[in-house]
Amino acid sequence: MTKDFNDYLEQQKERVGSVIDTCLQQFKKEDWQTVAMMGQEKYISVFDEHWDIVNDYPARRGKYLRPALVMLMAEAMSGSADKAVYTATAMQMSEDWILIHDDWEDGSLERRGKPALHHLVSSEIAINAGDTLHECMHRVLCENFRLLDVDLARKVQHEFFLMLGRTTFGQYAEIKWTQDNKDDMTEEDVLFTVSGKTVYYTIAGPLRLGALLAGATDEQLQRIYKFSYPLGLCFQIRDDVLDLTGDFEGQKKQKLNDIFEGKRTLILLHLLSHCSPEERQRIEATLSLPREQKREEAVQYIRDLMDIYGSIAYAESQAEKYATEALSLLSDIDFIKDDYRQLFRGMVEFILRRGR
Fold first, then answer.
1. Distance between start and end Cα atoms, the chain
2. CA–CA–CA angle 319, 322, 327 (5° rounding)
3. Half-sphere exposure of 241 (CA within 13 A, CB side)
4. pLDDT at residue number 290
5. Of 164, 242, 237, 235, nearest to 196 (Cα)?
6. How far apart are CA 82 and CA 59, in angstroms?
7. Where are any strands of DSSP class E within the chain?
8. S-S: 112 plus which of 40, 60, 206, 351, CB 3.0-4.6 Å?
9. Residue 110: beta bridge partners?
């Protein structure tokens, strides 16, 4: 079942990745024409260097889950794959610029098996590359006004921007509460940040965009969100477990990033609610430090306690629970073609089992 979805994912990765390459080449050409028109051809080496940096994250190729979900829902509702490809391309391009900014904000060391961009170039240049990809994403979205009915193109654009707005709000809450070393966070607080950064951006947004392209009603879009909510929670919890236990298929060398960043996860919340007062005091002292001041042995101490108190096992059981809930809600998505149901079930299994 999962293998079928893996195959679909690889097919869409190849297709959308090719469109991204073509678009970025075209945008670079167009930008150079503007530079040449201004009589500034002598700066071509600086121009090429800028675009090499802009292309860095797109060239690394992620999983392409989000654009694949755009394509999957559009196809499953008898929409046109050809008319969905630019929205899927913009979806992936948004991930790349967000990750550049996110890696700098979180102080991440690596991305997709290589140093994070702000470690290869200055932080300022890395953020500028993200800004460039951001405006490239807008250029790609504008292609919908050529391919689609104008009203539909506007609906897709509106949904896309609502998705990004909810994502950046979730990022704000996570950063602020981490910086404040908020020590009274509840499970509801954690799920609130996850609902923006992961539920909507990773699952609900892409699926809703694909559905819009196929003519979905508001009621159908709401059912898609209801299905996406537990699946997005499953995705994030699995991501948090992998940060502590896996190497993301050999691409990740630095482990325990979430602890180094002081990120509040369900795993950490479980530990804080089960450890002794003395252990909690020691944990919170470490979490209050900036990343660069956290000692590896102090971080490892927190990681070891997560095993002792069963915090990771608890998170895995929660991920299983949410995946089961999503599968049960799949029956409510009765407007997709029957021959696509196996792919949707495979998608749920892929999200739950990835990295195992």
1. 15
2. 125
3. 24
4. 87
5. 164
6. 23
7. 110-111, 114-115
8. 60
9. 115
DSSP state letter for 121: S
Structure tokens at 33: 């024409």
Q: What is the residue type of 250?
A: G
- pLDDT value of position 292: 85
CA distance 356 to 344: 19
Per residue in 47-60, pLDDT (tens digit) is: 999 999 999 999 99
Summarize pLDDT for 167-223 with one digit per residue, the tens.
999 999 988 988 888 888 898 999 998 888 899 999 999 999 999 999 999 999 999
Q: Determine what percent of the chain is predicted with pLDDT higher than 90.
A: 83
CA distance 167 to 116: 21
Residue type, 278: E
**pTM of the complete model:** 0.92
**Residues 67 and 88 sit within 8 Å (Cβ to Cβ):** yes
Cβ contact 275:309 at 8 Å: yes
State the burial class of residue 274 (Cβ atoms within 10 Å of its Cβ: 0-12, 13-18, 19+): middle
**CB within 8 A of 319, min separation 6: which ones?**
233, 234, 237, 238, 241, 352
Dihedral sign (CA 152, 93, 21, 28) = positive
Residue at 4: amino acid letter: D
The whole-chain average pLDDT of the chain stands at: 93
Q: If you search the block for the tokens 């195992």, which residue do you land on?
A: 356
pLDDT range class, residue 79, cuts 50, 70, 90: confident
Please give the helix or strand (H or E) that residue 333 lies within, else none.
none
- Whose tokens are 């101490």? That residue is 301
